[in-house]
Fold this protein.
Amino acid sequence: MSGNVDAPLALLAELTHRCPLQCPYCSNPLELDRARDELDTDDWRRVLDEAADLGALQVHFSGGEPTARRDLGELVRHASRAGLYTNLITSAVMLDEARIALLAAAGLDHVQISFQDVDEAAGDRVAGYPTAQRLKREAAGLVREAGLPLTVNAVVHRQNLARLAAMIERVVELGAGRLEVAHVQYYGWALHNRGAFLPTRNQLDQATEIVEAARVRLKGRLVIDYVVPDYHAKFPKACMDGWGRRFLNVTPSGKVLPCHAAETLPGFHFPSVRQASLGDIWRESEAFNRFRGTAWMPEPCRSCERREIDWGGCRCQAFALTGKAAATDPVCVLSPDHSVLDAAISEAEAPSPNFVYRRIGGRPTGDRAAHVPLPAEG
Ligand code: SF4
Ligand code: FES
């Protein structure tokens, strides 16, 4: 396939995998890129230009923790001048007034801050970083004082759903215009920790009621997006809005992926921006074309009326649960593999295991909440 491929909507620029937090539900891969392998400033400038030339409208600066890159302001300025809408997705624990002013002056359009919990001790335990929730609250205030629009991303799971109503009130106090109540999605480190996070059906139903009531009560003040854990859904989500349709991810070391978890799939070669242009990779690469459109689909997707609604669900989830990347996502009730979810759902009723915290260079076990210092830039 080439030539007639639509332009992407957005580039997810994963500037670094370095991060001072260790959230056990991180969607980053288990094998994290090292600082010494990261693209440099000139590489990223070229990637941003190529994204704009390709027709992308937005860039989301993400990681890891993107503020760990000293050149973030320069990259925001460059993207802004290239005509891209710039969004910073951050844990915010490294943001202070001077850094926010610098980013605003560089043309940053929007900030998204993640919160672990309204109970600060519980949130800091998930983050693996003492004081993280206080630092996030302070940074959210500074973002609003700088006049930047703020979205809060509240990641919810079986260990904090009882406090969802209080979390929503906290977000109103912070002055955010938008809240994403995002149930953990099971990729990367989150899949490794699924038993600690997956809620029961009952917990999910109660959370959905709380969100629906808050949407009515806060109409006009706060927009609430709601991402459910699709293990409990009837049909899968349209992951990435379809493979190779609207999004591309560039990893810290320069690999170009159709989604953040694509490196978990076997038998792929993901091209690098060091060897090819973003446009060529988007249009021509085998990796982007393998699951693009509907021609690759097996039954029951191939003849299903939802095939251009959910695009057969998520390739990475299909592989993680069935060992077959091209299978119908087993979340779908029509999938012949749907019963594989039973074992996962029963984990939600069992006692929660300890967290396996996200770290560069290891897969530690144990319920530690120690602060691991941020590795230096290479
Ligand atoms: Fe979606 Fe395939 Fe299920 Fe149809 S059969 S709802 S296309 S996952
Ligand atoms: Fe890879 Fe859904 S996360 S296709």
